[in-house]
C-alpha cells in the first residue's frame, strides 16, 4: 500500500478527530517515522508476551498504515513550506525523472493497447499535452488508465509498480510546482491533516511503548526496542526550564 492510499483510507478518521486534542511533533518527523518502523519490526517478535499483557494486536496490524499516512501528510506539509526559490530548485531536480516516467508509461501503453482503438486514442490524447502541470496530470491519468485496463498490460509483463510511482510522483511534485509558480504556501487544511495523522500515529506508538516497557521491565535487552533513541540522546541536553515533551512543538 502506498503512503497516499494509507492516508486516504484513514482520512475519515482524521476528519472526525477533536482538533483540541491534536499533538504537534517534538522531534524531526523523518526520525519519528523511522523509529516507528523500527519498533514495528521489534514488536512482531514479542506478540505472545504483549497480547498476554492485554495489548490489542489490531493496533499493531494497522501500525504500518498509520506510519504511511503520517509520512504522506508530512510530505505534503513540508512541500508547502518551501520558499519559492527552494521549490523551483527541488522541482528542477525532480521533474526530469517525472517526465521520463510519463514517457515510459506512454511507450508501454501505446504498444499494449495497439489493437484497442478506443483506449489507444485515450493514451494518445494524454500524451499530446505539454508543460509541467500537464505532465503531472498525465501521470495521474495514465496510472488510472493502467489500473482500469490491466489485462493488455499483463500480456507484455508490464511492471505495475510504475503506476504507484506515477501517483507518488504526482503527489510529491504538485505542491512543489504550485509554490514554484508563486501560489500561496499557507494551507491550513494541509497543516491540520499533518497534525491529525501524526496524532493518530503517536497514539499507537505511545500505547505500544507503554506495553513494551511494562512487560520487559526486567529485560533491558527487549525493553530498549520500545524506547526512543532520539529522545534518549537529546534528553541530557534539554534545558531545565524547557517545555514539556508534549507541548514543545516543531514545525
Account of the protein in words:
The chain has helices at residues 3-15, 29-43, 47-52, 58-61, 63-80, 84-112, 117-128, 132-148, 150-155, 161-180, 188-215, 220-223, 229-235. The longest helix is centred in the middle third of the chain and has 29 residues, at 84-112. With 251 residues, it is mostly helical. Helices cover 71% and strands 0% of the residues. It has two domains: 3-80 and 188-235, no CATH class; 84-180, no CATH class. Helix 1 packs across helix 11, helix 6 (84-112) packs parallel to helix 8 and helix 6 packs antiparallel against helix 10.
Helix content: over 70%
Structural class: mainly alpha
Which spans of ≥5 residues are poorly predicted at pLDDT below 50? 237-251
What string, H for helix and E for strand, traces the elements in order? HHHHHHHHHHHHH
Shape: globular
Task: Please work out how many helical segments DSSP would assign.
Answer: 13
Rounded to the nearest angstrom, the distance between the terminal CA atoms is 27 Å
- Rg on CA atoms, Å: 22 Å
Amino acid at each position: 500500500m502506498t503512503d497516499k492510499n494509507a492516508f486516504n483510507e484513514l482520512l475519515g478518521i482524521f476528519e472526525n478527530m477533536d482538533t483540541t486534542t491534536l499533538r504537534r511533533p517534538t522531534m524531526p518527523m523523518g526520525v519519528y517515522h523511522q523509529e516507528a518502523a523500527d519498533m514495528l519490526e521489534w514488536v512482531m517478535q514479542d506478540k505472545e508476551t504483549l497480547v498476554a499483557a492485554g495489548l490489542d494486536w489490531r493496533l499493531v496490524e494497522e501500525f504500518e498504515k498509520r506510519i504511511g499516512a503520517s509520512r504522506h501528510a508530512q510530505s505534503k506539509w513540508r512541500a508547502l513550506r518551501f520558499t519559492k526559490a527552494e521549490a523551483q530548485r527541488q522541482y528542477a531536480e525532480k521533474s526530469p525523472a517525472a517526465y521520463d516516467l510519463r514517457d515510459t508509461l506512454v511507450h508501454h501503453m501505446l504498444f499494449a493497447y495497439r489493437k484497442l482503438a478506443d483506449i489507444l486514442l485515450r493514451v494518445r490524447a494524454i500524451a499530446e499535452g505539454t508543460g509541467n502541470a500537464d505532465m503531472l496530470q498525465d501521470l495521474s491519468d495514465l496510472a488510472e488508465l493502467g489500473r482500469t485496463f490491466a489485462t493488455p498490460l499483463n500480456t507484455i509483463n508490464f511492471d505495475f509498480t510504475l503506476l504507484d510511482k506515477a501517483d507518488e510522483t504526482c503527489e510529491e511534485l504538485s505542491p512543489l510546482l504550485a509554490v514554484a509558480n508563486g501560489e500561496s504556501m499557507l494551507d491550513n487544511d494541509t497543516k491540520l491533516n499533518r497534525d491529525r495523522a501524526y496524532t493518530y500515529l503517536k497514539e499507537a506508538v505511545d500505547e505500544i511503548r507503554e506495553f513494551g516497557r511494562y512487560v520487559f521491565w526486567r529485560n533491558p535487552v527487549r525493553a530498549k526496542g520500545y524506547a526512543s533513541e532520539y529522545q534518549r540522546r537529546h534528553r541530557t541536553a534539554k534545558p531545565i526550564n524547557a517545555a514539556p515533551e508534549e507541548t514543545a512543538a516543531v514545525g
